[in-house]
Write a structure and sequence with these properties.
This protein is mostly beta strands. Strands 2, 4, 5, 6, 9, 10 and 11 form a 7-stranded mixed β-sheet that branches. The radius of gyration is 13 Å and the shape is globular.
């Protein structure tokens, strides 16, 4: 069983940056596709990005494209999300997720999830 823990969230002013981390305990994430989602109050969970085990294949949702960058360090069993140019509408709980046997833009297709980290962007 893979356990994922997000960190790096907090309060930031509009236009600022944050770097989120997702640390995995248990089996190595080397062979896993990693993804980042977010969920704001009253909204459905939203895909932001996924990155393949090798880092060679990535996907970015329109909301993340050009501002957010996914990366991973398999040796440290950690995935990252660099967020720049943050806007108030980015305020949400951010989650990392993992799957060992496929990749998807749909949250219901991911097997392993972290507990989430709050990101709040002030006006």
């Amino acid at each position: 069983q893979v356990q994922l823990v997000e960190s790096g969230g907090g309060l930031v002013q509009a236009g600022g940056s944050l770097r989120l981390s997702c640390s995995a305990a248990g089996p190595t994430i080397r062979s896993y596709t990693m993804a980042w989602f977010r969920q704001a109050p009253g909204k459905e969970r939203e895909i932001l990005t996924y990155i393949s085990w090798s880092g060679g294949s990535t996907y970015y949702a329109d909301s993340a494209k050009g501002r957010f960058t996914a990366s991973r360090d398999n040796g440290r069993n950690t995935a990252y999300l660099q967020m720049n140019g943050l806007k108030p509408e980015d305020t949400a709980v951010y989650y990392c997720a993992a799957t060992s046997n496929f990749y998807s833009v749909y949250h219901q297709d991911y097997e392993y999830w972290g507990q989430g980290t709050q990101v709040t962007v002030s006006q």
